[in-house]
Design a protein that fits this description.
The protein is mainly α and 116 residues long. It folds into two domains: 2-76, no CATH class; 77-116. 53% of the residues lie in helices and 11% in strands. It is built from four helices and three strands. It has a three-stranded antiparallel beta sheet with strand order 1-3-2. Strand 2 and strand 3 form a beta hairpin. It is elongated.
Length: 116
């Protein structure tokens, strides 16, 4: 599911994911994956399409329906928000660094007008 968000953040408007069934360790892993996808679908984050015919019980593909709901479902923040936070922290730290460089030399000076 994170892959869908990664592709969304890279510019794909409505990314689709295809389960790699041979890549799963066992049936329990497939069941867990399917259960998590169904929970995401119930939350309105994705839309699941099932296979046809004898593969009707398998998930054929998953489409990201609502990025905001997927972020909430995965407890993940959009990359743009994370970048904004880093820039904000960097800017504050840079400002405080400049302030520190400015204040330190001033602290050591005597006030010549008052004799101190």
């Amino acid at each position: 599911m994170s892959d869908l968000l990664n592709r969304y953040e890279a510019g794909t408007a409505s990314p689709v994911g295809y389960p790699d069934y041979p890549g799963f360790a066992d049936v329990l892993a497939i069941d867990k994956f399917a259960r998590e996808l169904r929970e995401a679908e119930a939350a309105g984050a994705v839309r699941i399409a099932t296979g046809k015919g004898r593969n009707g019980d398998q998930i054929a593909h998953v489409r990201l329906e609502a990025a905001a709901r997927m972020y909430a479902f995965l407890a993940r923040r959009p990359i743009a928000e994370l970048v904004d936070d880093v820039i904000e922290v960097w800017t504050i730290e840079r400002f405080l660094g400049v302030l520190s460089v400015t204040v330190k030399p001033w602290r050591g000076r005597k006030d010549r007008s008052s004799g101190y």
